[in-house]
């Protein structure tokens, strides 16, 4: 079966493609089509677990699971991490009732149209190319977790140290080809059509390293199930 690639991030009204991935938190496979015709689905597509921002966004998404389920919305977390590494992480950092899948090849990210920017010395063509100068000029502000706004690399190192997260060979392999992978969340209705999304691939890049506010997610869920 040919891999589906969207030329840009899927938008409300687009039909989500079927993607089949290895389940992390249970045996077997998970597919987008498992939910089509049955339940609305919030799909979170993240960088690997090597990304401290994504680890926080995954935990935030998991915290909404109960409230989403009450509205008839299931949630699926997808990480760009090899299956055994992902299973080991969630064994020691369990999130109640988390439904998660491993996508080390980033098939789902391409299918949903999330770019994987190439890092360059001085060329910017957002969201496909990003110069190191531009990246180092960005500031990540996480009050309560970072002592001050920091560039993404310094912020990552600080959070990894805070978390006690030790990179493995699997993590390093994923970071080598997908460190810049953009992430997003897509809310699909029962027919598998996108009704709401939040991605890092905005024209101005203002969503970089951010997660949607819980109120925004729940408001969208209320709309999609009525």
Automatic annotation (TrEMBL):
<feature type="domain" description="Thioredoxin">
    <location>
        <begin position="10"/>
        <end position="226"/>
    </location>
</feature>
<dbReference type="InterPro" id="IPR036249">
    <property type="entry name" value="Thioredoxin-like_sf"/>
</dbReference>
<dbReference type="GO" id="GO:0016491">
    <property type="term" value="F:oxidoreductase activity"/>
</dbReference>
<dbReference type="GO" id="GO:0016209">
    <property type="term" value="F:antioxidant activity"/>
</dbReference>
<dbReference type="InterPro" id="IPR000866">
    <property type="entry name" value="AhpC/TSA"/>
</dbReference>
<dbReference type="Pfam" id="PF00578">
    <property type="entry name" value="AhpC-TSA"/>
</dbReference>
<protein>
    <submittedName>
        <fullName>Peroxiredoxin</fullName>
    </submittedName>
</protein>
<dbReference type="InterPro" id="IPR013766">
    <property type="entry name" value="Thioredoxin_domain"/>
</dbReference>
